[in-house]
Amino acid sequence: MILFLKKTKPSSKAKNIIEKCSFHNSHLKGKTVYGHQILVSLLSCDGLVLPYSIDIYDKDFMSKIELTQKLVESLPKPENKGYVLCDSWYSCKAIFNSSEKAGYSYIGAIKTNRVIYPKGHERLGVKLHKFATTLDIDDFDLVTVKDQEYYIYSYIGDLKDRKNVTIILSYPKDSFHKDGSLKTFIALDNSLVPLDILTQYTDRWAIEPFFRDCKTYLGLDGYQVRSEKSINRYLAIMTINYTYCKLYSNESYHFNTGYKSAKKALIKSKITYIYEAAATGKSLEEIFKTLKIA
Predict the structure, then answer these.
(1) pTM of the predicted model, to two decimals?
(2) Torsions phi, psi of 81, nearest 5?
(3) Which of 6, 121, 139, 292 is least buried, going by the fewest C-beta atoms within 10 A?
(4) pLDDT, tens digit, for every residue of 8-67?
(5) What is residue 150's three-state secondary structure?
(6) What b-and-e string marks burial along 118-137, b requiring 16 or more CB atoms within 10 Å of the CB?
């Protein structure tokens, strides 16, 4: 997933600008903003979700799709079934092919203006949002996904650039046929039932708390280093710290639990060092120097 990190646009006279910054379209803000975009991927297995990669997106070097292809093809082969989970930006032929090449199937959101070819529309096709308006509520099934109820309709057929896929049309229970409420999803594995597709896709939202925690506790939206090398070093240190806190939480794998426990352990270790150093006769200056206190 791409995360946008806003930075201050430098003046024309600035000598030491922040490297790899450029203008990007922010869908959240609805305008073009200056800053970094970073591409993040997470690996999930048996309830443990850890960061796998974090890269600065440089649109002068390669496209988002090319960067994502490179990332997907570097993934470790899954022992059993594995799925690449993405938002609608990445639901395209190139990522479908890269996922399969890496040994994964693909589940993702898909834009509602994509064209399908159901019965009656075999020649020209019809856009998903237009097709949805031809369906009645009785054509949908009511299901529960993570305690939320949705009306869903399953279509197995073709896209223009991909044959024989499963597409799920979904409305929240209280927003059937309301403008802007239609969400659509795609799966390459037709053996999955619709509810399993949606349940698998919800695992993608693990990336949201990852961003939240990194911003809140690890300075992701406030770093002040300028060179590309320094930024990459910071991002590496951040992901290592995040992983450490996840694993430090023992079996819960909750970042907040691990972060608080690690912070308490650090404070205890400092107090223990000061106590033991004082007992052996070390001066305050030596203790301050060791603790890097000016």
Answers:
(1) 0.85
(2) -85, 145
(3) 292
(4) 766 555 667 778 787 777 766 677 788 888 889 999 988 889 999 998 888 888 888 999
(5) strand
(6) eeebeeebbebbebbeeeee
